């Protein structure tokens, strides 16, 4: 990380007021990419050198030169891929657009109905050819999708969220009780991060609070880029106040005065709804200085991402907000010590933050009662179109996976051989292992999988596993920030080997492939390169017969294809 | 080493971590890699993205090790470069799993790297090659895939080269450009496998904003970024450590020599001054030393022409003529001008020859035209005319004040350090008429009218007193004259000062508060302070600012002149001034004279000698007959050229020791070929009083000789028995007469030199005036702002103010840098003019502009720039054929006689 760039972005742009990242994104607004002269002027204004503005702009899908002239984007996420709907969408769009006007976006969060594409700043899915034509002509504008929402157990996140008046009273009571009481409640609740790592939230809040330096920041990681997951999108679009007030509550606990919510550009509806919600909070006296007459102030800032999966990694996310290239930083320093603009920062996922209002109002103990001993509370599940009832469900932690699939999902719509749970870096669960799993961090880890975002994508029986593995490597290669050697080079080499094995008589050297996976797992700087080995190992272990023809000496020499987490 | 630490800090319990089960002492805050390097040796753990002067980055992962915490048995693989050590940590640096990981990582790297090692520039000096050999790669098992081997080379630049097909994406170049130079020219474009290093907006080196410092080339582990000299890999018979000849920063250089030729220069990592960094002048601009125009034999004027003679003929002639002149007109008819480009030993000998052989104090040096006001002003206030602190103190400072200096161009390595601090947010106050590069990073830039430093400094002092921000204890205990000073300051008319300086009072006040409220504040100044009518007073006020806030005598503070020439400090220390001898001792003091006479074994004059401007006047008046000049080109660099040339032409005997045929040498009766810094030994003293060894790298070209040797041989011809020129011998002699050199010994200076005063036991001094000032108490003197005669007399007819500035790529009159590829980067002087002024006079970028002053005129090409305010012009002066000194004034500093180069009333028109 460059301390100089961080300091200059903080100083020249006053951090969030004149935000460098937004300025770069705005440059691309007009024609899909940034203009060199405008970039040079921006570099002069921020004193950061032309190379850095250019370097940042060239990183993101929606600011890089390749994005110029793109008018429509087809979803390339796992669920749409596996559902096999996208060739048809592309063919339909090709009737209206030139090939160079059609781009790709990785997961629009329409995993429940597929055929997703992005046009004119809105997302559409499951539209017929006629409807697509109407959308393009402007006759049809309705982009809202619909999906099942239900729960098993306590609906902490999917239940009715109180009106703002009631919230104001709760917040006022929070100010009265003081930050220690709040922090204690969060500790008691046992709330763990829902973004994948499952890190205890109270620990981060406390570390941030104790760290020297102001202003402190709460950053809501709404860059839910995991193909297959739409739980964060649900929360932002349907429970925006739960998310935003969660940030405010976290801010109070960490004594942070700024809240940044960084939302994927692929979710235009979420961006619009959160923007409105922030406005509503301002009007309700919950955004600004001296909230409700207290001496605590909290300032919301929405930042729209520009298309880079890696920004879901917390340090890359911080770099992104600073207008730098979102390359993963080494830790330490941890964000709680030296985070956004070099100040103490807590980064949390949308779902994690959305739980705080419940903990505030119902108490930490009430939260801890739900779920299991170590995984408290509930978990949102995103079920894709391979289920009879695709949708967004909330279950108490510890609920058997099979039960959720049966009672909520209604079983499978088409034959599947495995579930990819927790995004592209989550585990590949063969159908026979479903009954061994309960929905909590421990059960998944113990069985050699990962709960992650708890997005569930079904892999159809007929979909070749080798092709799916190639897709995973291709995804990693496309999204790798390029900083650490294993991920930058290894993801490409993995993809190439899998490709070659399908198209030529080439057999993948078993030992080499295992060396590559091990190198990625042990050597990568972040969870992208470090995470890809998990599903790959699961596949090697559970789909041996299917994969065997593509390898030389499968499983000989040394067995490391066991379902062990990376 | 460990024992020392323990005895010094007995209270700290030693903490241990384990390597393969064996305990080793750890240090708080170090990384596992540093810990392992300390105990297993520098090279034990292979690394690629790690570099000695860069922050941990964690890209290559080659330094990975296995660790386990006690009681938690499962080992974990971590990159050792960015993982902190912990007490009790178990580290397995060479486990099977780690060795395999490293091998597999390098194999991946090699899938996208050319395997043409034998023909590669860095073959045998390649870090990737070393690491690959160490981890044991035999073959690359991956099938052929996508590569970047077809990336084109970039050979656009006179020095920098790149071949990104060799790039391994370790980011060391990008980080060096950021963390070392602070230029931010390099970054990465794209992402993932296709990401690549870019210069600017994916331009060539030449088209980018690169300042050619070479930090990236030195940082690059392969030949992806290099330079035309192949500096990091060229095989040399020997490497010689020496000191740069350009500015007063005093960078250490490691010179690679092959067959008596300089092949390349790099910056040693262990140099305290420049730790692996230099600017393009130090690193690349060395080829002047073997330029065909070097003077290679002595010459004498015969029948109006300079003709080649032997050394004997020249010496005989000189001895005869000098003795004649001395006998006929007296010793005061002879004078010498010494050189801040030469070594301490040479300067010492030069002043010694003038004083002991000719019996006169007519010795001066180019410091007269640069920092003489600094020496004088600081001597009068503190007692010592040298920087109070060390550049390394920047680590400890909370506020930086830069007045009249452009360090990123004039003192690039110090400039880069200052910029690093400013970029990271250390409050920076810049007082300068120009929006210099460093001013862009300033918290407060007081963009004053040239010549009004005293007004602005007085405003700042006013607000410090008015706001009660003085350090009362410091003032009471360590200073004198404060009450009177305070009265003077409070009686100032701020309306007037605001009007004359053009600096709003709020700005001056804010800057004053920033400076005064910082825990420590460090002031730097340059020729923008000294080359003025009130230069000495401005220096004294900077010293007053430091005293009033207690910013003297502790780390991270003080008054620190950025000395221009490599040895301008040393030249003054050695006594090249008309009123003080070696060691700044007053020649009019009988006791001092007695000491000198006893030591030199010759009578010493009791009369203060001529300063350089006085020498010209004396020559024109017929009082000065002979002038011996060592390495100084007054005919080009001194103001009011007509006057200077006339004076030099009226001499009976002009002797010039030079490396090139300069304008001054062309006027000489005798020209003696001197040696460059690469061809001699001695010591230079940098701007922070650091005496460093200059080592001979190659033999002097042709018949040229080290300047010190020439003086010694001449002295002996004049009948004065002077020991031969060796750095060791002459330094020994100096140590016996210069008090603050008492403990200086050639053999003890080591790689990083010593900062004077050096006590007889060899202990040196990083910070002056600790506890007490050299002169006892610091002396406050109130001085009011007075407008220079130049403005009073000429502003009406010549409404613009012309000031002067430098560029990074050229050095002074360009004698050296213009004989290097630097001219391909900057090949002409430019006149900075505000676009508003340019518009009103129909001047466009690149137009020739005639500049006219009361003295004369010259023509310079215009560059429209917002760096200068309307009404102000600034010109560079590296190409003396433009004759900028035809227009400069003959106003001098009222006390130190330094010429006022920085304020000239002019009018302009498009040619």
What does this protein structure show overall?
The complex is a heterodimer of chains A (566) and B (911). With 566 residues, chain A is of the alpha/beta class. Helices cover 43% and strands 14% of the residues of chain A. In chain A, the strands form five sheets. Chain A has a six-stranded mixed sheet with strand order 5-11-10-16-13-14. Chain A has a four-stranded mixed sheet with strand order 2-1-3-4, covered by helices on one side. A four-stranded parallel sheet of chain A has the order 8-7-6-9, with helices on both faces. Chain B has 911 residues and is α/β, with parallel strands linked by helices. In chain B, 29% of the residues lie in helices and 18% in strands. Chain B contains 29 helices and 36 strands. In chain B, strand 33 and strand 34 (857-864) form a beta hairpin. In chain B, helix 22 crosses helix 24. Mean pLDDT of chain B is 94; it is low at 1-10. At the A-B interface, helix 1, helix 3, helix 4, helix 20 and helix 21 of A face helix 3, helix 5 and strand 8 of B.
């Amino acid at each position: 990380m460059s301390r100089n760039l961080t300091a200059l972005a903080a100083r020249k742009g006053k951090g969030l007021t004149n935000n460098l990242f937004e300025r770069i994104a705005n440059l691309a607004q007009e024609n899909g990419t940034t203009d060199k002269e405008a970039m040079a002027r921006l570099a002069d204004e921020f004193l950061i050198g032309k190379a850095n503005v250019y370097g940042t702009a060239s990183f993101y899908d929606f600011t890089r030169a390749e994005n110029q002239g793109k008018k429509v984007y087809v979803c390339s996420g796992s669920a749409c891929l596996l559902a096999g709907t996208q060739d048809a969408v592309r063919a339909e769009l090709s009737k209206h657009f030139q090939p160079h006007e059609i781009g790709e976006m990785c997961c629009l969060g329409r995993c429940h109905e597929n055929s997703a594409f992005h046009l004119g700043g809105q997302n559409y899915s499951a539209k017929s050819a006629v409807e697509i034509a109407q959308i393009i002509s402007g006759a049809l504008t309705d982009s809202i999708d619909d999906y099942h929402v239900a729960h098993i157990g306590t609906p902490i996140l999917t239940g009715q969220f109180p009106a703002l008046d009631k919230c104001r009273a709760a917040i006022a009571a929070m100010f009265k009780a003081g930050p220690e009481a709040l922090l204690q409640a969060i500790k008691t609740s046992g709330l763990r991060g829902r973004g994948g790592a499952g890190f205890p939230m109270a620990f981060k809040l406390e570390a941030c609070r104790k760290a020297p330096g102001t202003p402190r920041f709460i950053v809501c990681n709404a860059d839910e880029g995991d193909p297959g997951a739409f739980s964060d999108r649900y929360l932002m679009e349907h429970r925006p106040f739960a998310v935003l007030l969660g940030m405010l509550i976290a801010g109070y606990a960490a004594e942070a005065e700024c809240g940044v919510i960084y939302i994927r550009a692929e979710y235009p509806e979420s961006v619009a709804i959160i923007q409105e919600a922030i406005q509503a909070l301002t009007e309700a006296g919950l955004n600004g200085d001296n909230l409700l007459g207290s001496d605590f102030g909290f300032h919301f800032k929405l930042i729209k991402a520009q298309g880079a999966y890696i920004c879901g990694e917390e340090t890359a996310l911080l770099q992104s907000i600073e207008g730098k290239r979102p390359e993963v930083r080494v830790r330490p320093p941890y964000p709680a010590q030296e985070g956004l603009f070099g100040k103490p920062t807590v980064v949390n996922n949308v779902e994690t933050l959305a739980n705080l209002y419940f903990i505030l109002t119902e108490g930490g103990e009430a939260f801890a009662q739900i779920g299991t001993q170590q995984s408290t509370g509930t978990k949102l599940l995103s079920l894709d179109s391979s289920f009879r009832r695709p949708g967004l469900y909330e279950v108490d932690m510890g609920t058997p996976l099979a039960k959720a699939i049966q009672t909520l999902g209604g079983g499978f719509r088409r034959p599947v051989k495995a579930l990819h749970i927790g995004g592209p870096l989550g585990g590949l669960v063969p159908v026979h292992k479903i009954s061994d799993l309960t929905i909590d961090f421990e059960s998944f880890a113990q069985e050699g999988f990962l709960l992650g975002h708890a997005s569930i994508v079904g892999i159809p029986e007929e979909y070749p596993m080798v092709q799916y593995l190639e897709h995973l490597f291709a995804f990693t290669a496309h999204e790798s920030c390029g900083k650490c050697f294993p991920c930058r080079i290894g993801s490409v080499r993995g993809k190439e080997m899998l490709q070659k094995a399908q198209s030529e008589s080439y057999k993948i050297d078993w030992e080499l492939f295992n060396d590559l996976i091990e190198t990625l797992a042990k050597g990568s700087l972040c969870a992208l390169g470090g995470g890809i080995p998990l599903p790959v190992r699961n596949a090697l272990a559970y789909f041996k017969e299917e994969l065997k023809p593509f390898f030389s000496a499968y499983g000989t020499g040394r067995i490391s294809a066991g379902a062990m987490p990376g | 080493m460990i024992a020392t630490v323990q005895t010094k800090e007995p209270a700290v319990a030693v903490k241990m971590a384990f390597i393969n089960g064996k305990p080793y002492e750890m240090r708080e805050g170090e990384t596992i890699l540093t810990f392992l390097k300390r105990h297993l040796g520098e090279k034990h753990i292979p690394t690629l993205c790690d570099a000695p002067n860069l922050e941990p980055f964690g890209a290559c992962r080659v330094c990975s090790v296995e660790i386990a915490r006690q009681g938690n048995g499962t080992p974990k693989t971590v990159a050792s470069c960015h993982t902190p050590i912990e007490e009790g940590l178990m580290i397995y640096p060479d486990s099977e799993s780690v060795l395999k990981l490293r091998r597999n990582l390098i194999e991946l790297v090699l899938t996208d790297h050319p395997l043409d090692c034998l023909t590669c520039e860095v073959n045998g000096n390649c870090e990737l090659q070393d690491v690959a050999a160490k981890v044991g790669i035999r073959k690359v098992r991956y099938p052929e895939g996508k590569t970047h081997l077809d990336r084109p080379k970039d050979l656009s630049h006179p020095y920098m080269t790149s071949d990104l097909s060799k790039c391994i994406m370790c980011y060391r170049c990008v980080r060096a450009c950021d963390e070392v130079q602070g230029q931010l020219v390099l970054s990465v474009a794209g992402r993932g496998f296709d990401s690549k290093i870019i210069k600017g907006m994916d331009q060539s080196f030449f088209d980018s904003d690169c300042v050619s410092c070479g930090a990236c080339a030195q940082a690059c582990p392969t030949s992806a970024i290099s330079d035309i000299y192949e500096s990091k890999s060229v095989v040399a018979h020997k490497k010689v450590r020496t000191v740069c000849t350009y500015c007063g920063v005093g960078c250490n250089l490691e010179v690679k020599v092959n067959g008596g030729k300089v092949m390349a220069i790099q910056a040693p990592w262990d140099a305290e001054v420049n730790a692996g960094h230099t600017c393009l002048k130090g690193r690349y601009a060395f080829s002047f030393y073997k330029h065909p125009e070097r003077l290679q034999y002595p010459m004498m004027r015969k029948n109006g022409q300079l003709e080649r003679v032997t050394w004997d003929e020249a010496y005989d002639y000189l001895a005869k003529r000098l003795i004649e002149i001395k006998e006929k007109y007296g010793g005061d008819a002879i004078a010498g001008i010494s050189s801040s480009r030469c070594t301490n030993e040479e300067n010492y000998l030069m002043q010694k020859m003038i004083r002991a052989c000719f019996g006169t104090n007519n010795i001066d040096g180019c410091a007269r035209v640069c920092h003489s006001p600094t020496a004088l002003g600081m001597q009068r206030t503190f007692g010592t005319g040298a920087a109070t602190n060390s550049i390394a103190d920047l680590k400890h400072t909370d506020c930086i004040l830069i007045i009249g200096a452009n360090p990123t161009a004039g003192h690039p390595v110090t400039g880069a350090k200052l910029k690093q601090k400013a970029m990271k947010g250390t409050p920076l106050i810049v007082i300068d008429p120009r929006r210099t590069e460093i001013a862009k990073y300033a918290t407060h830039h007081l963009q004053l009218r040239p010549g009004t430093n005293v007004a602005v400094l007085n405003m700042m002092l006013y607000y410090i007193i008015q706001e009660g921000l003085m350090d009362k204890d410091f003032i009471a205990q360590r200073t004198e004259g404060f009450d009177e000073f305070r009265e003077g300051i409070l009686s100032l008319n701020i309306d007037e000062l605001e009007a004359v300086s053009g600096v709003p009072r709020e700005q001056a006040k804010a800057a004053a508060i920033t400076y005064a409220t910082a825990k420590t504040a460090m002031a730097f100044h340059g020729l923008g302070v000294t080359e003025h009518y009130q230069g000495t007073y401005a220096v004294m006020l900077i010293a007053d600012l430091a005293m009033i806030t207690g910013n003297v005598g502790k780390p991270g503070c003080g008054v620190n002149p950025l000395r221009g020439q490599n040895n301008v400090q040393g030249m003054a220390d050695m006594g090249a001034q008309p009123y003080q001898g070696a060691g700044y001792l007053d020649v009019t003091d009988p006791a001092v004279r007695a000491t000198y006479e006893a030591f030199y074994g010759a009578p010493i004059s009791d009369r203060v000698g001529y300063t350089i401007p006085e020498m010209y006047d004396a020559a024109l008046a017929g009082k000065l007959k002979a002038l011996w000049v060592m390495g100084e080109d007054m005919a080009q660099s001194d103001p009011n050229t007509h006057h200077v040339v006339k004076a030099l032409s009226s001499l009976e005997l002009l002797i010039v020791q030079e490396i090139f045929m300069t304008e001054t040498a062309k006027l000489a009766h005798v020209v003696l070929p001197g040696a460059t810094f690469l061809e001699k030994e001695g010591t230079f003293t940098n701007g922070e009083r650091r005496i460093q060894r200059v080592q001979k790298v190659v033999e002097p070209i042709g018949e040229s000789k080290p300047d010190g040797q020439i003086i010694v041989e001449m002295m002996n011809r004049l009948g004065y028995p002077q020991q031969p020129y060796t750095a060791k011998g002459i330094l020994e002699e100096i140590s016996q007469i210069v008090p603050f050199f008492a403990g200086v010994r050639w053999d003890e200076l080591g790689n990083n030199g010593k900062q004077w005063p050096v006590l007889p036991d060899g202990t040196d001094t990083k910070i002056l005036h600790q506890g007490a000032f050299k002169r006892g108490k610091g002396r406050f003197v109130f001085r009011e702002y007075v407008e220079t005669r130049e403005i009073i007399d000429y502003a009406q007819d010549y409404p613009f103010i012309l000031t002067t500035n430098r560029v990074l790529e050229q050095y002074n009159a360009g004698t050296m840098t213009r004989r290097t590829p630097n001219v391909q980067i900057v090949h002409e002087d430019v006149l900075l003019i505000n676009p508003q002024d340019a518009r009103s006079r129909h001047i466009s970028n690149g137009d020739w502009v005639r500049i006219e002053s009361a003295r004369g005129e010259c023509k310079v090409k215009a560059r429209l720039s917002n760096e200068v305010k309307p009404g102000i012009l600034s010109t560079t002066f590296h190409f003396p054929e433009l004759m900028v000194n035809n227009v400069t004034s003959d106003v001098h500093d009222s006390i130190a006689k330094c010429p006022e180069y920085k304020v000239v009333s002019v009018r302009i028109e498009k040619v």
